[in-house]
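Researcher: I'd like a candidate sequence for this fold, 199 residues long. If you have to choose between options at a position, lean toward the conservative one.
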């Protein structure tokens, strides 16, 4: 598989996964999730997926430190709205994948420990896009990709690609424009892109 080169520049999310540790799936339970992992999970790379990754990176950075990594599977995620509306489900599912949790369908744990279920929720009244709760602390985040301007040719080219009328050159141009915006979101620290509210 070949990804855009900028994927390699995106910082990874490092976690401790006790379930992987106890079952010997990953040495010492130390797991690193990178943006390409999330792209494989979501099936695409877009501003929504990029934003979800960035918010998870910031949440992990907030809850972790050099001596103690965040414990994967032991975090509660609350997403705004319902899972059927807009991109709510995409954001929540990316976050749930990164942090190893799920709704009522998740893994129930071993011997009453390391349960992954009932840790992903949706709330119409949430005053942010996503909230993370961990060890009695929480952080809320609002994602505003509109601060990263899009190329004027992007939407016309997208319509042509979807409609099947784009030439090969136009398809290639659209892909570059699309991923360049994703790169801009992920690698350039735009003011107002992600607003955090700490409890």
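Model: Candidate sequence:
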């Amino acid at each position: 598989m070949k990804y855009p080169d900028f994927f390699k520049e995106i910082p990874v999310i490092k976690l401790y996964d006790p379930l992987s540790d106890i079952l010997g799936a990953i040495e010492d339970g130390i797991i690193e999730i990178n943006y390409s992992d999330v792209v494989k999970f979501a099936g695409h790379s877009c501003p929504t997926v990029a934003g979800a990754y960035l918010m998870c990176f910031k949440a992990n950075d907030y809850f972790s430190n050099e001596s103690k990594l965040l414990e994967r599977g032991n975090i509660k995620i609350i997403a705004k709205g319902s899972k059927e509306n807009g991109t709510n489900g995409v954001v929540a599912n990316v976050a749930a994948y990164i942090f190893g949790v799920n709704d009522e369908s998740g893994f129930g744990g071993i011997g009453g420990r390391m349960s992954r279920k009932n840790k992903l929720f949706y709330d119409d009244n949430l005053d942010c896009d996503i909230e993370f709760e961990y060890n009695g602390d929480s952080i809320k985040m609002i994602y505003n990709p509109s601060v990263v301007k899009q190329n004027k040719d992007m939407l016309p080219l997208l319509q042509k690609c979807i409609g099947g009328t784009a030439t090969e050159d136009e398809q290639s141009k659209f892909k570059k424009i699309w991923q360049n915006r994703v790169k801009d979101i992920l690698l350039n620290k735009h003011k107002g892109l992600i607003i955090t509210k700490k409890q």
